[in-house]
Amino acid sequence: MQFSDELEFTHRDRKDVYEYVERYGSVGYEKARAGLDMEPAAFGHHVAILKRDGIIEQHDDTLTISFESGGKEQFSEDGVEFVIRQAREDDLTGLVGAIREAITDKTYIVAENIADIIDHENVLLRHNDLESRVFFVATVNGDVVGWVHLTSPEIEKLGHTAELTVGVIEAYRGHGIGSHLLQRGLEWANENGYEKVCNSVPSTNEDAIAFLDRHGWETEAVREKHYKIDNEYLDEVMMAVNL
């Protein structure tokens, strides 16, 4: 299933199964059945149809939402070998850690908020009636060292736009990882029908602003004194790129 696919179900119970699995990201088969108070035969049938339609995957006793990932890409830059791929639910802990390590200077408020949200929800990927959310990660020897994230509200008037964050932990900056992550995120956005991608940072995050500027992003607006960090008021720089 692609994130651009509309959520339409031919049976109410099937929609309930999807929503239960999506809420938890990854959930045990029997836990889901019991949580929905559904008869074993009926639950098994609905899971089978959702699996047939490429909406749910089952690995051993675990159910997850199935999303087309586009595979993984391998790169080697300046002696550093890394992989970029769509994040999986079991990347959550490493991803949250990477985001928080990358933003210790408190100059990427949106990314900080995203880390708090996924840590609280304990779910990475979202595709429901309120929002769509996807992550791609860069890994070195299997460890997450960078990310790109896109979120879009399921509102018709804003459905053509997505908000993006991207970052790399300090030890792996300067090897092109951020550029490859940004490209992967924008390719995904374009493939899924988005027309505009936005990102906002405090004006003191000059590295992020310069990075996006080099990749063709433009400053659309500046909101004065929008952030208050360590008792200092900072402007918000709102940037965007049209696809």
Description:
- The chain has helices spanning 12-24, 29-36, 40-52, 92-102, 109-121, 177-191, 206-214; strands at 26-28, 56-59, 62-65, 73-77, 80-86, 126-127, 131-140, 143-153, 161-168, 196-202, 218-229, 232-242.
- By secondary structure, it is α+β, with helices and mostly antiparallel strands.
- Strands 4, 5, 6, 7, 8, 9, 10, 11 and 12 form a nine-stranded mixed sheet that branches. The protein has a three-stranded antiparallel sheet with strand order 1-3-2.
- The longest helix is centred in the C-terminal third of the chain and has 15 residues, at 177-191.
- The mean pLDDT is 90.
What percent of the residues sit in helical stretches (DSSP H or I)? Answer: 25-40%
**Alpha carbon gap, first and last residue:** 22 Å
Specify the structural class.
alpha+beta
Say how many strands there are: 12
Mean pLDDT: 90
Task: Give the biggest sheet.
Answer: 9 strands, mixed
Written as H for each helix and E for each strand, in order along the chain, the element string is HEHHEEEEHHEEEEHEHEE
What percent strand? Answer: 25-35%
Instruction: Based on Cα principal axes, name the global outline.
Output: globular
